[in-house]
Write a structure and sequence with these properties.
Layout (H helix, E strand, L loop, with lengths): L2 E5 L3 H13 L3 E6 L2 H11 L2 E6 L7 H7 L4 E7 L11 E5 L4 H23 L7 H18 L3 H15 L3 H12 L2
Parallel strand pairs: 1-2, 1-3, 3-4, 4-5
Helix pairs in contact: 5-6, 5-7, 6-7
Length: about 180
Amino acid sequence: MVNIIVAFPKMENGKSIKNILVKHGFYVGAVCTAGAQALRHADLLGDGILVCSERLTDMMCSQLREELSRQFEMLVLAAPGFLEEDMEHVMYLSMPLKVHQLISTLEMMVYSIEQRKKKKRFRPQKRSEEERQIIQKAKEILMTRNHMTEEEAHRYIQRTSMDSGTGLIETAQMILSMMQE
């Protein structure tokens, strides 16, 4: 689920957008009237999408984008012709707003964020030298005592890790402690 913050200078406009989004299955974490409020909520939520107008009670959307975490994307609902070209991670929709455009744009943005999270999750972890040594020692013990190849020992540690629901390092440490007894 992707967090969404709605920020408009008039609370009733923000609540209207929130109601539309909730009706279409989105989770709205906060509705704000000021950029400072939106930034506070963004810090608490960590990542997501900020849906806002080009102007809030205390700042313009360009100022908000500069202060906003790069983990947040921004959808600006603005008057026709409003476009600030130098802003990254920003999508624009012209007012008056068509609900289906808002929903399809948000669905596309949510999909993009979820794909980025998946890529990040499946990226191989960088291990410290100490962790690599622990895994290597566990493999060497398995290779010596159980006459396995290095690949078989590594697969054994991986499979045991997955079956027990522990990390690779923890599994290697368990193997080391069991073999040293």
